[in-house]
Amino acid sequence: xxxxxxxxxxxxxxxxxxxxxxxxxxxxxxxxxxxxxxxxxxxxxxxxxxxxxxxxxxxxxxxxxxxxxxxxxxxxxxxxxxxxxxxxxxxxxxxxxxxxxxxxxxxxxxxxxxxxxxxxxxxxxxxxxxxxxxxxxxxxxxxxxxxxxxxxxxxxxxxxxxxxxxxxxxxxxxxxxxxxxxxxxxxxxxxxxxxxxxxxxxxxxxxxxxxxxxxxxxxxxxxxxxxxxxxxxxxxxxxxxxxxxxxxxxxxxxxxxxxxxxxxxxxxxxxxxxxxxxxxxxxxxxxxxxxxxxxxxxxxxxxxxxxxxxxxxxxx
Length: 316
Prior knowledge:
The chain is of the alpha+beta class. It has helices at 19-26, 35-43, 87-95, 125-141, 154-162, 183-188, 192-207, 222-238, 247-256, 299-314; strands at 7-11, 53-55, 57-61, 67-71, 73-76, 103-106, 119-120, 147-149, 210-215, 261-268, 271-280, 285-292. 37% of the residues lie in helices and 20% in strands. The longest helix has 17 residues, at 125-141.
């Protein structure tokens, strides 16, 4: 096995990349960088075509042809679906006479979750450097305005800053499981006011006649996927936003990643009326989308937060 020579290639679709090779680099910890997740976005039409996300997947191979490094990277023709807002930069760049788009972005589309962006064998620093240099080379070759890497781990961000990349910091709120025995144990560690409020919220949902279901793996049916897509669109319509994800994306995810999905569903009078979609990582649960057909007080908190915390505690 010869890693002395590194060959950079560009992939234009996940389907052309061997899933086992990609996942050997991605590892099992983060569901969003898996071959299945990224391919579902492509198969479902959320990425590629006229979406403004053109796959430009960086692939490092050694002289034996083995994949030893990769990045989920895209040629972007806008800044939608990134959850990092650089429209001010774009406007300033174009006022100065430049063309901000297309730009090069390494990220998981539509997913503001921190995770690896440099997928390399044995976490090798030299391979990460080669991928970063590859992005810089593509910017020059195609005369792009810039290269960006979103939601990457802090140690990788630090190394990029040392190499001359600009570092931008944003804020997220994460819940951490402090080895709680159960949900009540978690509540017992809160202030009296917060504990009382959460118990009141949960009780109000139950009193309204709502039953909460936690579905994973084979318990997730196409009917559940269809219902959840309806909820997702309902939320988009209420927020006057754009639906980045298609029904086919959710169908693909249900077919290929059900074991890594937690679908929380709310049942009311015999009908599924709301739900929240989470993805299961090795050491984290990632809440992504939610929606409901009808408004029930505190259902959002129950479906998106309390049920997810309950699940995280139960599964360690």
